[in-house]
Amino acid sequence: MERVELAVKGMHCENCVASVTQALKAINGVKLARVSLENEQADVTYDPSKTSLQALKDAVEAAGYQVAS
């Protein structure tokens, strides 16, 4: 398992948090996704043999938010 913190921009409310959380949890290999509106951050634990960091970023962006590098 690997853990990564993604800086997520564009969230404004708890519905945004739910959207990002749902997008991340829908990825095969994601074991845990905690999203903080206050910190503008997603803390994700995932299996690198099943998914990639890029897939996590792509999912957040597909949900309509930006991942800061």
From TrEMBL:
Name recorded for this polypeptide: Copper chaperone CopZ
Organism: Sulfobacillus acidophilus
Keyword annotations of the record: Copper, Metal-binding
Alphabetized Pfam families for the sequence: HMA
Domain spans labelled HMA: 2-68
Example of a GO MF term: metal ion binding
